[in-house]
């Protein structure tokens, strides 16, 4: 039974012709142009700014309406991010071609980050403006750019980022789904802690990849890796600041 399930999943997630024959080509594959990313990010920032100020004078949507919307949004975000397999690809060959199942799922992952912009709309519609922080908007914008850089530079180590980020989002959206159906777990802090662990783990893998690059035959997309490391460092600093403001100070007040 287990072998049948494994064979079925392997065919539909790896060996299906649409996946195994996939090739990412800049300017031809959907969403593969710099102009596309620029327009999407600009539209997101403009819509967020405009709606944030317009919603102040409009009535809030009731929680009975927001809960099913949030539940459906979380479900779609999880199911659109099916990259739950570990690809042992920390260092791609320098001449790596952007084709095959690995880059197919990277493309799906990249496009799913646009779908996740929808949670900002739900926050604004619910007038939960305290949650509409700089970290929230910055995180959405930078992650979309990171995913584009992964594909464009054929960046080594991105499979690790896909797997860890997908895992964190399963936990995060699982928490919000439970909140949406009226069951608020007590482990909200763990969502932030898992995100911090993801960044620290990423830097550890980066060190391993750099050792392979400089003392081995080289790794594909090294400049993309530097770009990603700089973004991750900024996000890590913001997450630590967020955790300090929201949890450490709260703990001190409770003492």
UniProtKB/TrEMBL annotation:
Membrane topology listed for this record: Multi-pass membrane protein
Subcellular compartments: Membrane
Pfam families reported in the protein's UniProt record: ELO
Cellular component terms per the entry's GO annotation: endoplasmic reticulum membrane
Domain of life of the native organism: Eukaryota
GO BP of this protein: fatty acid elongation, monounsaturated fatty acid; fatty acid elongation, polyunsaturated fatty acid; fatty acid elongation, saturated fatty acid; sphingolipid biosynthetic process; very long-chain fatty acid biosynthetic process
GO MF, any single term: fatty acid elongase activity
Key words of the record: Fatty acid biosynthesis, Fatty acid metabolism, Lipid biosynthesis, Lipid metabolism, Membrane, Transferase, Transmembrane, Transmembrane helix
Coiled-coil residue spans: none
Transmembrane annotation, as ranges: 30-51, 132-151, 157-178, 190-210, 222-242
Protein name: Uncharacterized protein
Species, as recorded: Brassica oleracea var. oleracea
């Amino acid at each position: 039974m287990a072998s049948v399930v494994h064979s079925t999943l392997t065919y539909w997630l790896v060996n299906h012709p649409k996946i195994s024959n996939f090739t990412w080509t800049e300017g031809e594959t959907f969403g593969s142009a710099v102009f596309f990313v620029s327009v999407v990010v600009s539209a997101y920032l403009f819509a967020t700014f405009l709606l944030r100020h317009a919603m102040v004078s409009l009535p809030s949507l009731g929680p009975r309406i927001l809960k099913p919307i949030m539940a459906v949004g979380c479900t779609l975000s999880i199911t659109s991010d099916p990259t739950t397999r570990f690809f042992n690809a920390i260092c791609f060959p320098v001449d790596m071609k952007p084709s095959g199942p690995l880059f197919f799922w990277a493309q799906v992952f990249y496009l799913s980050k646009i779908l996740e912009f929808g949670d900002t709309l739900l926050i604004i519609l619910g007038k939960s403006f305290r949650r509409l922080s700089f970290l929230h908007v910055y995180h959405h914008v930078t992650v979309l750019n990171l995913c584009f850089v992964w594909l464009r530079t054929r960046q080594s180590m991105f499979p690790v980022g896909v797997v860890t980020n997908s895992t964190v989002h399963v936990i995060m959206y699982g928490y919000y789904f439970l909140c949406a159906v009226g069951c608020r777990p007590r482990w909200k802090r763990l969502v932030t802690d898992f995100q911090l662990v993801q960044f620290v783990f990423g830097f550890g893998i980066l060190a391993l990849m750099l050792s392979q690059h400089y003392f081995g035959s080289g790794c594909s997309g090294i400049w993309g890796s530097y770009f990603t490391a700089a973004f991750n460092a900024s996000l890590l600093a913001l997450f630590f600041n967020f955790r300090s403001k929201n949890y450490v100070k709260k703990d001190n007040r409770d003492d």
